[in-house]
Each structure stands twice: as C-alpha cells, then as structure tokens.
C-alpha cells in the first residue's frame, strides 16, 4: 500500500489519522511541525502528504510551496480547523490536491486519500511511459539508406557533431530532420546531457516565450508557480528548435539574444539565467524567402545556419527505399507481434515509383498498412491496392 506523511502539531489529530490510514493498510509517518515535516518529505519515498495549515516554525502553506518547488508531482492534502473559502482557494492555487476541514470526516478522508493516490499512480505511470518512449526514440535513431545523399549527410554529421557549432537542418515534412538532429546530439560531447525538442509550429505565439525561457509565478493569469523553460532544461545538452520558421518575430528576437549572450530571462523575471546549450534548428520553409518577406530575422538566420544540412525528400533518393522498406517491415512486425514478412522485388519497385510527398514518414505508414493487410509476402499487387488510400 501507500506510504503517507502526516504533518500536524496536534497529537490527537495525528493519532486519529494514523488509525484511519493504518486500518487501510497504509504505512504512516508523523511530523509535529512544518519544518520537520518538510525535511521528512524532502527525503522522499512518500506517496501522499496530509498537512495542517496552522503550525509552529512553518505554516502549512509555506510547507506546500516549498514541497512543490522540490517535487511538484507529490500530492498534498491540506487540513485545517481554521478554514475559510479564501484559505481553501489559496491552498488549491498553490498546488494542493484537496482541502479538508477539521475535525476530519472519516469517509471524506478515505475518498480523498484514494483519489490522491490514484492520481499519483497515473502520474508515475505516465512518467514511466514517457521514459520508455524517450529510450525507444534514442535507441532507434538510425539514418537508414546508403545512397549518395544519405552517405554525404552521415559524413557531415561525423565532422560536425563533436563541435558546438549551430546547425540548421532543412527539408520537407517527414524527411527525417529530427533523426539528423538526434544523431548530431548522440555523436556529440553533450550526448550524456538532455536532448530537448520544441515544436515551434505547435505552440501558440503567446506561449512560445514562456515555453522557451520559462516564467515566474504571477507573470500571467495561469502562472501559479515558477516554471523552467526549454533553454534552461536543455542546459548541458542540445536544444532542438523544430519548425523554427513558424516562430514569431518577437520570440525570434529573444532567441537571438539567448544565442548571443548564452543568457535568458524568464517571462515576468528581472534576473538573467546563464545557460550552456547547443542549438540545432530545423525548418521546412525557405528561410531566405521568409527573410525577404519580413517574416524571419536575417541576423537570426545567420546565427543558426553556421552549418547547413539539407535532407532531400524521399522522391529524390529512391535508391534508399529498399533499405528503408526492410527496416520498417522489421520494425512494424516487432511492434505488432507478428512473424516477419517478406516483400517481393516487384513490390519494392512499385514503391519506388510513388511520389512520396510525405517522405520517409509516409513510407513508414504505408509499410505498416501493407504488413497488416497483406498475406505472408507483400506483393506488387498489394502495393497497387493498399499503398495509396482510396477516396
């Protein structure tokens, strides 16, 4: 069961809560004031904290703030005999999972504890799944294809990766720009550091600065606590700015300053934060045209494109399709838990005839469709039937 910390200066309340929770087979520890409770909670290992508000040495709201600054995923339930609506609202704004008035009602306590632990379990499961996805991504960074174009890109990566030079990767959607960025990171001296990706096209313009540089509590309506930005999170590693051509001019100016000075200022903050980050950017746009049209800063372009790498579309390197096809068949069969399938030479030739506007990403999707819908061997007839969706 769960390990729960009770922080309360009233011995009788601690004893009552302990009896309730131990009856439910939970492990319970106690602290008689805010300072010792915070110290115990920071040592870790707890699934839930029940915390009084009015206590000596440090009140519960201060404990809540400091605890959430240390670990914002640990659920904290506030308990008070002096509760008002304002106090409850303040506690919830500061990140409390729930607020319960004294004397605590048995059923209310049990329901709240169950809900808090359920949420904590879901948060932990999500974290584990994210780690698995990241490991899968990191472990699957491959640039499949031995054609002239891909060989030249790999040679460029080998030369550039050990340096801290900024790289601008260009190419169509689905061409493999992220794969190039990840390989640059993995072959760099920063490989042990974080690889942090920001999709500039997916973040609304009004939020991009907060996403990149972080924000201070109170900087805007929903800023209920300080938050680190991607530049700070990537310090010591690599920051990948994907689709940078979609970034607003205001955000571009701040990115330029960060690249020039290796410093950032969080939204709503007045102190600079020094960052040590290598920036790799990517775009599917013609940035020189964007500059001419006034949509992209020329000085930022020159800062980013110290080393330009262009990833050609799949239709420009059809010689790689046989290798990519074999790679994706193996990958899809493993994911689907089915026996590896063969593909006829004529089927591969049919794939090479297609236009591939979606590039490598589209090929991967088509291979998955063919693996699922074909029999033991993927034939040229299967490609003609299933490769291009009807309607």
SSE order, one letter for each helix or strand: EHEHEHEHEHHEHEHHEHEEEHHEHEHHEH
Task: Please report which band the strand proportion falls in: under 5%, 5-15%, 15-25%, 25-35%, 35-45% or over 45%.
Answer: 5-15%
Structural class: alpha/beta
- Major sheet: 5 strands, parallel
pLDDT averaged over residues: 89
Rg over alpha carbons: 27 Å
CATH fold field value of the largest domain: Rossmann fold
CATH architectural arrangement of the largest domain = 3-Layer(aba) Sandwich
N-to-C span: 54 Å
Low-confidence stretches are: 135-141
- Number of extended strands: 14
Helix tally? 16
Describe the structure.
The chain has three domains: 121 residues, Rossmann fold; 171 residues, Rossmann fold; 72 residues, Helicase, Ruva Protein, domain 3, CATH 1.10.8.60. The chain is α/β, with parallel strands linked by helices and 391 residues long. Strand 4, helix 4 and strand 5 form a beta-alpha-beta unit. The protein has 16 helices and 14 strands.
Question: What's the helix and strand layout?
Answer:
Blueprint: E1 3-7, H1 11-23, E2 27-31, H2 34-42, E3 48-52, H3 60-70, E4 76-80, H4 85-93, E5 98-101, H5 106-139, H6 148-160, E6 167-170, H7 177-186, E7 195-199, H8 208-213, H9 230-233, E8 238-242, H10 249-261, E9 263-264, E10 273-274, E11 278-283, H11 287-292, H12 298-304, E12 307-310, H13 321-336, E13 342-343, H14 345-353, H15 359-373, E14 377-378, H16 380-386
Parallel strand pairs: 1-2, 1-3, 3-4, 4-5, 6-11, 6-12, 7-8, 8-11, 13-14
Antiparallel strand pairs: 9-10
Helix pairs in contact: 2-3, 13-15, 14-16
